[in-house]
Design brief:
There is one protein chain. This protein is globular. The longest helix is centred in the middle third of the chain and has 15 residues, at 67-81. The strands form three sheets. The protein has a four-stranded antiparallel beta sheet with strand order 5-6-7-8. The protein is built from two helices and eight strands, in the order ββββααββββ. By secondary structure, the chain is of the alpha+beta class. Strand 2 and strand 3 form a beta hairpin. The chain has helices spanning 27-40, 67-81, and strands spanning 9-11, 17-18, 21-22, 24-26, 90-96, 102-109, 115-122, 128-130.
């Protein structure tokens, strides 16, 4: 994948220091962090600062394991990520893993030469994490 320099920079959400300064995430890593932040932030919990920020994905915990539940989760992920101005062309697929967790496959196209593929997991505690899959 080519380096994407238009995706900006931000403080690393782990609040890690390097050489006495907070570490910065840039480009692709910044977008990955932004995606996880949006999905893990409760919807409207930051309404003093942002309009329509966050997700209700954790509301699906405890729902019956079914294709209908997966469709609701997929729609919530699409709606949440649709609010991110850097994501214009993306596809979301969801499925159940063997352990019952929800696998979220995200494919983002930036241009003919640049894309981003991410595998995310909705953990049983409600947190969405990036996986190495």
């Amino acid at each position: 994948m080519e380096q994407i320099v238009e995706l900006g920079a931000d403080l690393n959400c782990n609040w890690e220091f390097k050489d006495g300064d907070l570490q910065i995430v840039e480009n692709k890593e910044n977008l990955v962090q932004a995606i996880l932040n949006r999905l893990n932030c409760s919807y409207d919990s930051l309404d003093l600062f942002y309009y329509d920020y966050g997700s209700v994905i954790s509301n699906f915990l405890g729902w019956k394991k079914s294709d209908k539940t997966l469709e609701f989760i997929r729609l919530e992920v699409e709606n949440t990520l649709g609010q991110e101005p850097r994501l214009n062309n993306f596809n979301v697929e969801v499925s159940y893993k063997s352990d019952g967790k929800v696998l979220i496959e995200l494919y983002v196209v930036f241009d003919d030469e640049t894309d981003l593929t991410m595998s995310l997991v909705l953990e049983k505690g409600g947190e969405v994490i990036a996986t190495g899959e």
